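Progress against Task 2.4 (sequence-to-structure conversion) is shown through the following example record, which the project officer requested during the mid-term review.
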Amino acid sequence: MLVLLAFIILFHITSAALLFIATIDNAWWVGDEFFVDLWRICHNNTNCTEVNESLSGYPTLQAVQATMILSTILCCVAFLIFLLQLFRLKQGERFVLTAIIQLMSCLCVMIAASTYTDRRQEIHSSDGGYPQSSKGQYGYSFILAWVAFACTFVSGMMYLILRKRK
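Structure tokens generated for the chain above:
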């Protein structure tokens, strides 16, 4: 059981790290001479500008930003609650709250990544400072967001299964 708990702790920390990287790093949409994240647009790897209200898809991008931040916060809260529940609750009652919060984190990252996927053209319209956006492709931060979705889902399910273990 101790090995299983160590694996779950490591898996949860990995999920949180993936969420942090996907939220902060600047590779959601990349091209030959530009890269874009949730916070700024960089041309020629040197000229970076902050995303602001002049972007036509700014409300959609704000929703993606908010849900990614919320998923990261929920993942960290779920880990802290897991540690508290590990030592405070009796067996059979453990990890239900942790599982619920982790699955809410999973839902938030899924909403963010799927919204970005669906509304990418709106977010990266040519009038918002993305002249080359049609020539780009999804970057590794976007892919990490989908991997973090899978990891948080599996982690939440592991907590539900683990609550029944002795």
